[in-house]
């Protein structure tokens, strides 16, 4: 029997090559903005994209930092004084800074993403204070409008595009067992995997990757986060590991752990990847894309596995019961980069 509850999320999406240059002004006007705070880590790009409404740009904030330190959030909030719109142009860290502003000011966000992070379609915010990252969910931080322009992601270095695309893949895979999963989020996740796999196979296919990233973020926003994200969050928080690479390394090991207990998810993931064994398929995809072989290659010490374990809150409804012993062996395998083929 199928039974579920589904809270659909609002938001307008404009997708297409060239849209950041041709459609941004109209989207700013549709939101009735007169005083815009631009948040960006690439000043030149933001200046170029806002040149047709430069008279309405009240301030530009460029001190974007990974994982949104509270100090950066407070500076950005101060810069928002008098603004009626936040325009963010950048990756997940930039969108995250815009979200920190929206969280306390209630200002609407117009997001122009330049990576495959997917944050622009989620109501999830994150802030780091005294080395500890806190996340939360608030409808105020969900951007009102997102302009997805694949021309902007084409400048990503190949390595970063691959890691960011695999990070989006993690959103899709996890959506199959995350706490608020439903048939809609699973359908979106499956199609997201299909587009991401096509995009990752061809470095020139920025459009496939960006569409996949949008679907991935949308599935993640609805389904929520599960075992994989809890592990990566604990790893990132404790050792300041690079976000996208950490996700890319850990994902096949979480899938290997859950797949025997999540047959439907495993077969849908395999189908979307175009392989017979989803675990081997995902592992090989990462290897082909040059994902570091294990967390040890990111500089983490093996003894740190225990530090992470102490920090982990086990998800209650993971398909496979999560015991401390099982988690320890999963983390050791991900640390060593154990071959999953
Ligand atoms: P990022 O925004 O930190 O960007 C990584 C690097 O890529 C930066 O140096 C940036 O300047 C550069 N860059 C960005 N776009 C570029 C482009 N088009 N060409 C060349 N260089 C470019 O990294 P990210 O992976 O996009 O985002 C990671 C952050 O987003 C993490 O803090 C993560 O927690 C957060 N995140 C949040 C959510 C959410 O729902 N709240 C979802 C996903 C990620």
From TrEMBL:
CDD domains: MAR. Signal peptide: none annotated. Residues 162-335 form the Fe-containing alcohol dehydrogenase-like C-terminal domain. Its EC number is 1.3.1.32. The keyword rRNA-binding does not apply. GO terms for molecular function: maleylacetate reductase activity. The keyword NAD applies. Residues 10-150 form the Alcohol dehydrogenase iron-type/glycerol dehydrogenase GldA domain. SUPFAM superfamilies: Dehydroquinate synthase-like. Gene3D superfamilies: 3.40.50.1970, Dehydroquinate synthase-like - alpha domain (1.20.1090.10). InterPro entries: ADH_Fe/GldA, ADH_Fe_C, Alcohol_dehydrogenase_Fe, MAR. Keywords: NAD, Oxidoreductase. Pfam families: ADH_Fe_C (PF25137), Fe-ADH (PF00465). Belongs to the iron-containing alcohol dehydrogenase family. This is Maleylacetate reductase. It comes from Amycolatopsis silviterrae. The lineage of its organism: Bacteria, Bacillati, Actinomycetota, Actinomycetes, Pseudonocardiales.
């Amino acid at each position: 029997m199928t039974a579920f509850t589904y809270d659909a999320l609002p938001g307008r999406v404009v997708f297409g090559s060239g849209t950041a240059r041709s459609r941004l002004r109209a989207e700013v006007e549709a939101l009735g903005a007169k005083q815009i705070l631009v948040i960006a880590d690439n000043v030149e790009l933001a200046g170029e994209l806002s040149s047709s409404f430069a008279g309405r740009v009240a301030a530009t904030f460029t001190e974007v930092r990974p994982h949104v330190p509270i100090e950066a959030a407070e500076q950005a909030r101060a810069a928002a004084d008098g603004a009626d719109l936040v325009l963010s142009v950048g990756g997940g860290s930039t969108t995250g800074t815009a979200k920190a502003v929206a969280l306390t000011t209630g200002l609407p966000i117009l997001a122009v993403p330049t990576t495959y992070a997917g944050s622009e379609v989620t109501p999830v915010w994150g802030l780091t204070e005294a080395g500890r990252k806190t996340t939360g969910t608030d409808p105020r931080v969900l951007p009102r409008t997102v302009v997805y322009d694949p021309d902007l992601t084409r400048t990503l270095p190949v390595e970063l595009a691959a890691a960011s695309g695999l990070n989006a893949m993690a959103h899709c895979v996890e959506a199959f067992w995350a706490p608020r999963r439903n048939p809609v989020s699973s359908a979106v996740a499956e199609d997201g995997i299909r587009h991401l796999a096509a995009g990752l196979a061809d470095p020139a296919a920025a459009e496939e990757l960006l569409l996949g990233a949008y679907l991935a973020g949308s599935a993640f926003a609805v389904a929520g986060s599960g075992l994989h994200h809890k592990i990566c969050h604990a790893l990132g928080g404790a050792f300041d590991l690079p976000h996208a690479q950490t996700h890319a390394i850990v994902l096949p090991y979480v899938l290997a752990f859950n797949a025997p207990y999540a047959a439907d998810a495993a077969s849908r993931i395999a189908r979307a990847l175009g392989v017979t064994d989803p675990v081997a398929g995902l592992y090989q995809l990462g290897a082909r894309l040059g994902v570091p072989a294990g967390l040890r290659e990111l500089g983490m010490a093996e003894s740190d596995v225990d530090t992470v374990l102490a920090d982990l809150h086990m998800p209650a409804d993971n398909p496979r019961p999560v015991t401390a012993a099982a988690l320890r062996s999963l983390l050791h395998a991900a640390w060593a980069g154990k071959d999953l083929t």
